[in-house]
Amino acid sequence: MLVLAPFIQKYLLPVILFFIGSTASFPQSISGNLSLQPNQPIRLEGFNGLKTYVISQTNTDEKGNFLLNYSKADYGVGYLMGADNKPLFVILSGEEAVLKGNALNDVASLKVVKGQENLWFEEYAQSHPRREQALSAWIYLEKIYRFDSLFSIHQTPNSAIQAEKKRIREEDSAFLDQLPKNSYVSWFLPTRKLVSSVSTIAQYRPEEIPAAFAVFRAMDYTDNLLYKSGLFKDAIESHFWLIENSGRSLDSVFIEMKISIDAMMDKLVKDNQKLNEVTNYLFDLLERHSLFQASEYLAIKTLNLSGCSLNSDLAKQLETYRAMKKGNTAPDLLFNATLKAPRFQSNALPKKLSQLNSTYTLVVFGASWCPKCSEELPEIAKLYDKWKGQGVEVVFVSLDETKSSFDQFTKDFPFISVCDFKKWESPYAKDYYVFGTPTLYLLDAKREILLRPNSVKQMDSWVDWYLVQGNLKR
Asked: 466 and 388 in contact (C-beta within 8 Å)?
C-alpha cells in the first residue's frame, strides 16, 4: 500500500505563509522579526521537481530581524528554515513579504504584516480542514440515516444532512472561485486540496474517485507551476496511491494505472528532463510496492516513445523490462567461471543453468560490496532448505572482482555461487540486463521468467502462497 508523503502533512500546519505579486517586480524579498530567535541562521529554500535548493541564507540580528532575497527563477513555493530544520512554507511570486513572531517553529505567534495572498491562504488553511472534518461527519451520519432501519424512516434529518453537505461544498468552492485567476494560490490551493485529500476520498467519499482520477490525469508535469510547487512528488504518489486503494480488483487497478501512465507520458514527451525525472521516480515507486505489471508497462511505454532521450542509467533499467519481462525466456548461463556448489557431488556439477534439475530456479545477482546484498543473501541462505524442499533451486551470480572477496562472501552459502570477476562487464550481468544489485529472477524449469522479486521477503511470500499452500491443498 502506498503511503502518503510527509510533505502533505506538513502543509496542514495551521499557519503557512504565501506571497504573490507582479512578476515585473522581481527580485523580491522576505523579511521579518523573530523576537525569540536572535543571532540564529535562517535560510530560504525552493523546489525543483523532486529536489530542493538553497535560494538565500543569512543570520537574524541581535533583535531577530532578517532579510532574504529571491528572484524570478524561484517563482513558486519555498520555505523558511531555521536551525531546527522545521519548515515554514511561503509563496515566492514577486511580492515583498514581511512577518513577525517569536520563532519560525512557533506558528501560533507568527503574523504576516504584508502580503495579501498569504491572508487568503491563511484563511483557507484554517477553514478548509474544519470543513473537511464536518463534511466527513455528515457523510457518516448520512449512511446511518439511509441504511439503518431505525433511522431511515426519518426524512427530515436526512434532507437536512443533504443540505448541509451541499452548503459546505459550495462554501469551499466559493472561496477558491473568488481568488484572482492570475494568482499562484488560485492554482495551488485546489491542487494541494486534491493531493492532501486522497485518503479521505478513498475511505469516506468513493463517489469522488473518478473525478479525482480525471484531475490527476490532467496534470502537466512539464508545467513550472507544478514543478516549483513542492507538490511534484506528492502528486505522483497520491495519484497512484488512490488508484491502488480505490476498492478495485487488482486487474482493474492495473488498467487504471496504465491509463494514468499514458496521460502522464502524453505531456512529458515534450520535456526530456522532466520525462526522465518522473519516469525514474514512478518506476522506483511501482517497484517498491510490487506493482510489477504497472512498472513493466511504464518501462515499455517509455522506451517506445519517439523523439525522447533517456539518460543511460534509466534506459538500462527500463530495458530490463523489455528484454527480461515476465513470460520471456531467460538466457542460459554457462558456468565456465569459478563455481561453488556445496550440495552437488563433484562428478555432477552443472555446466550451465539449463542442467539444473529443479522445478524453479531463483537467479540472484549481487556482490560482497553491495550493502543490501549483505543483508539479503544470508537471509536466502537461511531459507534455502525450505525453498529447496518446495522445488526451488538458487543460483547466486557474484559481481565481485577478486576471488578472495567472492570466497569470503560465499563461504557459508549452501547454494550454487558463480563469479567471473568482471563486475559490470560480466557477460552474466549483460545477458540479464543487470544494472543494480541485488537483482532477482524467478524462472521455471524451461527458464521462463515467472517473477522479478524485489526482495527476499517477497520471494518467500511467493513460496508460501503458491507452493506451500498449494501443496497443502492437494
From this structure: no
Distance CA 127, CA 11 (A): 14
Distance of alpha carbon 393 from alpha carbon 299, whole angstroms: 29
Alpha-carbon distance values, 412 to 27, 131, 368, 408 (Å): 63, 61, 13, 9
Residue 221 is placed in which grid cell?
A: 508535469
Identify the bridge partners of residue 57 per DSSP, sorted by sequence position: 43
The torsion of the CA quartet 183, 186, 187, 190, rounded to 10 degrees, works out to 160
3-state class (DSSP) for residue 152:
coil
Q: Which residues contact 153 (CB under 8 A, 6 or more apart)?
A: none
| Residue 63 cell numbers, joined | 533583535
Rounded to 5 degrees, φ, ψ at 392 are -105, 120
Class of domain 338-473: alpha beta
Is the previous residue joined to 438 through a cis bond, with omega within 30 degrees of 0?
yes
C-alpha angle with apex 205: 204 to 207, nearest 5 degrees?
Answer: 145
User: If you count them, how many residues does the chain have?
Assistant: 474
171, containing H or E segment: helix 155-177
Under 8 Å between Cβ of 161 and 142: yes
Every domain range in the chain assigned CATH 3.40.30.10: 338-473
**Is residue 98 within 8 Å of residue 32, measured between CB atoms?**
yes
Predicted TM-score (pTM) above 0.85: no
CATH superfamily assigned to domain 6-119: Carboxypeptidase-like, regulatory domain (2.60.40.1120)
Q: For 195-250, write each residue's pLDDT tens digit.
A: 999 999 998 889 999 999 999 999 999 999 999 999 999 999 999 999 999 999 98
